[in-house]
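PT: before anyone asks, these are the final sequences, not the draft ones from last week. 625 residues across everything. Please model them as a single complex and drop the result in this thread when it's through.
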Amino acid sequence: MNASSFGYREREHTADWELEAWAPDLPGLFEQAARGMYALAAVRLKDGSSLSRTLSLSAYDSEGLLVAFLAELLFLGSAEHGEGGRLGFDSFDIRINGNALHATVSGAPILSLDREIKAVTYHILKIRRTAEGFEVNLVFDV
Amino acid sequence: MVRLQDMTRISPYEWVISQGFRSDMRVPVRLFATQEILEAVMEDNSLEQAVNAATLPGLVGEVLVMPDMHQGYGFPIGAVAATTYPEGAISPGGIGYDINCGVRLLASQIKIDAVEAELDSLATAINHHCPSGVGGDGVVRLSKSELETVCRDGSRWAFKQGYATEADLRRTEESGRLEGADPGKISPRAGERGRPQMGSLGAGNHFIEVDVVEQIFAPEAARAMGLSEGCLVVQIHCGSRGLGHQVCSDYVDRFQAVVHRYGIKLPDRELVCAPLNSAEGQDYLAAMRAAANYAFANRQVLAHQARLAFEETLAGKIKHWQLHQVYDIAHNMGKVETHVIGGKSLKVCVHRKGATRAFGPGTPGLPSEYRSTGQPVLVPGSMGTASWVLVGTEASMQRSLGSSCHGAGRVWSRHKAKKSVRGETLRQELESAGIHIRAGSMAGLAEEAPQAYKDVDEVVETVIGAGIARKVARLRPVVVIKG
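LR: through. Structure below.
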């Protein structure tokens, strides 16, 4: 049982990184997973600059949608996407309809990050319903 | 949960989990490990993941697990599995996100005693010439058409650009170019990620290391490789960078729906797979080969850059400063190979995830200089500890699908390592031990602390004890470059 109705924490994993996230609803769960992913990579954003991106994604199921959402954020946070450098986000307006997601995410260029996440995996991935809402464990390849 | 009593001890170095252990297993699991190693890995999910891997459709023989095993995602790290070709399955997660992550070894006739005073400058020069760090750009920015050529031609592209010699190509697995690669099967995003990163190390556990050949165990094999006691060598450990990560992500995602279409049931979604002879399986195979070729070219460009660093630092100060290639070998790869399994010669798709190909003497495809010794097997240790050069044996061909271990293997989580070790303290300790360190991130350095890994000597003694490799040389680090 988690003390707060939403949040995330790092779990022990021998080689990669495992994150547990929880929230009262599915959009909140996606937001907590994104915040947790940024925390694992120790992402710091530039002050005084803001930007936003709109994401429209669909997948085979909710777990696939979560992987697609986090993978999209990873890509926007990589140096290779060619739209003004690495971008990170700290504000999330997420709508989920079945297996489709529409989100507006706001943030800033990334000032620094300590660690590289290669990919979001499907390992042990199952979004679970709880009495308080939803929870999920995610393993990131690093 | 797998317990020690669930395994049959075959020898001090081999254990088997029978197919009957779990009803969905299609083949047994053979573990190359001592009891001490097994007891240590029982603290994570390595063995459960090995049992899960044994459920893939079309498996033949046994799922094999090397002594550097540790928990991964889907497959454990250190796993080798063969599926029938072409009707068996191919699993992108059984090859890994860093497609063709591997190790290249360059040797020299530079005596450590002659260059001790130059090592710090050498570390600076390598760090300067070989870009590293989180997501960093590489030496070459490829155009779209150049990227396609790299994905098709691998190290052959690097040769045409002046980054390689013919000897480099000959001494690379598959001559640095997998047939059947199709850049048209990688996504535009994978291409976009790959274009700026050619000739870059990345971060995480990737590194460039300068080592000294501390001891030689097999003089004839060492001679064939050009390894001399007391001389410097260079190891380069990296893979296919963002391009490979994206290829794996794309196909793991695409295969989520495919498994249902083919009626495949799996205990872990990261094991998703498709029949090799399906359109999806063929597409992944062609894309995976393209990413593998990118990785061969990437390590080749980094080898060229390491040579520039040696030239810049040592030319004019010593007579023979040149570096020649010993070998370049993948440890995350899917290959179609022929092996004798159950007394029959079978064409199979061998998945190696955190395991090194270890072909024995006489195996077709080895360069002539290694035909009688067996293929070099490169086993880097943890940062600051020894590394090993081994060779494959007749037994590795008979009993481990021509495979052996790939490193020390983690025992601590990254979380535990960063809580237990301060990066700056570790850097000072390594420097005091005479190892010149260049690291992009102190947090990253702490996560790769030697305490977080198994004893590589114990891992190597296990594969030697099991007979699936033979010792050639032990290396001691003097320069470490980490992203």
